[in-house]
Amino acid sequence: MGLVSHGPFPFAQAPQAEAGKILTTKDIQKLLAFEHFRWIETKHFKIGSAMGSYSIQEKEKKYYRAQLERLKAMGLKKVKVKTRRLDPWLRLHLYALWAEDAYKEFLRVVRKTDDDFPEDPAHAFKTIDGKKRYMGQGPYLGQPAKYEILITHTMKAYRIFMARFLGRVTVRAQRWNFVQRGALFVGLSEEMPGHRNDRKMHNSMVFCLAINMLDGYRFYAYNLPVWLTEGMGHYFERRVSPRFNSYDSNEGSVADLRRTWRYEPKVRAMVAAGAYPPLAGIFRKRDYGELKFQDHLIVWSLVQFLADEHGDQFARFLDRMKGRINPDGSTGAGNLLGVQRRAFKEVFGWSPGRLEEAWKNYVLTHYPAK
């Protein structure tokens, strides 16, 4: 996982009233003194966790033994592979391992390596495949700072952190851009519904990281269409486990159907009956709150189809959507819907109608009916 340190190190961003102050892990621990945070810095991440111990259930035993074997093989020789209890330090290292897994997976999806990204803004343009391309402002997929994760034990600590450093009042998973540092952040808490379950917490982290990594890819200068970001989140987390799903939408019907985890038969039934939401409408949605439950199923399926069946083209499609440069040299998102339409045509050779037909054929040939 490329272990760098256990702190202290810079983390988050000081509020506006303290502009210029370099916030560190010591400051976070001081503010939230009633929780014991443990810290780890890896090649691409900075993570703070106050999670408690986790008791491994019998049905989870095989999975966790395999994960602990991985940690042991990386040099953590004292790891007891057959333990039935994950202590806080062990959990921290597992989450660092899983975060790096997600990063490696993202590099696979975009068909890039660490060497493709600049060390600093002065080298933002790199020659790739004989062409000069804008690759961002730093080495972390184009971001200048490592991706950050904070997991609190209590909702009390979570609310205090969010109010103090983000100026937000929220009890939901939070993604944030600490603009001054160029660090994209994920916040979670064990007291969020279902998050005492370690598999759910793992999935939630990966869902948020996938979206942050897509945002940060070639630098976070503008928002992509929500079908693409939400679809990427679903795609990544369901590759970890399809049983625990996350939703950014505020739609009430979503909450009622979150126990529905077998997406494939539902998508197949919608396609077979011609009763799915029109793709053109989904592509035009700009806010996560506009996504209904069926939309979530469709955007997951679309990204799975593009990434698994047309991986090389999908990577080129993402390059058309990200890192766009205006004539004056600034980054910008002018007419992204038009850019998206042209990218489907030029990269895949698909008109909107042909895209829909190709996706429907994939669903009917790959998804089970039951």
Can you give a write-up of this model?
The chain is an alpha/beta fold. The chain folds into two domains: 186 residues, Glutaredoxin, CATH 3.40.30.160; 131 residues, no CATH class. Helices cover 45% and strands 11% of the residues. The strands form three sheets. It has a five-stranded mixed β-sheet. Strand 1 and strand 2 form a beta hairpin. Helix 6 crosses helix 10 and helix 11 runs antiparallel to helix 12. About 2% of the residues have low confidence.
Which structural traits does this protein have?
single chain; 370 residues; alpha/beta; Glutaredoxin; 2 domains; 5-stranded mixed sheet; two-stranded antiparallel sheet; 13 helices; globular
Question: Brief overview, please?
Answer:
With 370 residues, this protein is α/β, with parallel strands linked by helices. It folds into two domains: 1-52 and 87-220, Collagenase ColT, N-terminal domain (Glutaredoxin), CATH 3.40.30; 240-370, no CATH class. The protein has helices spanning 25-31, 61-73, 88-110, 155-166, 198-216, 226-240, 252-256, 263-273, 279-284, 293-309, 311-321, 336-348, 352-366, and strands at 38-41, 45-49, 54-55, 85-86, 125-128, 131-134, 147-152, 174-178, 183-189.
What are the SSEs and their pairings?
Elements: H1 25-31, E1 38-41, E2 45-49, E3 54-55, H2 61-73, E4 85-86, H3 88-110, E5 125-128, E6 131-134, E7 147-152, H4 155-166, E8 174-178, E9 183-189, H5 198-216, H6 226-240, H7 252-256, H8 263-273, H9 279-284, H10 293-309, H11 311-321, H12 336-348, H13 352-366
Parallel strand pairs: 2-7, 7-9
Antiparallel strand pairs: 1-2, 3-4, 5-6, 8-9
Helix pairs in contact: 3-5, 5-6, 6-10, 8-10, 10-11, 11-12
